[in-house]
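Service request form, structural biology core

Requester: graduate student, group of Dr. S.
Request type: structure prediction, single chain
Budget code: on file
Notes: please return the result as structure tokens.

Sequence provided:
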Amino acid sequence: MRIWNLTPHPCNYCDEGQNQRTIASDGNVRVNQVQVGDVVIVSTIVADALARLGAPDGVIVLVPDTGPTCKRDESGRIVAVRQFIRK
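Core staff response, request fulfilled:
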């Protein structure tokens, strides 16, 4: 098994027997921070169109979940949703 040190500097390791080993850097891995933009709530039809045409960068598209988890009145009309679906 090969141990990869992907920090920009050597890593010193000391086991329980007090044996020290230096693991040289094999390179550098970093994560870029991405700023997420706005969240939009739209109908399924609009969300499907945005999926085909491409939503603007950074926009999170949500649709109301109108399935069995939503709250309905005595006539069956939706009065509230309990969750959203990310498209």
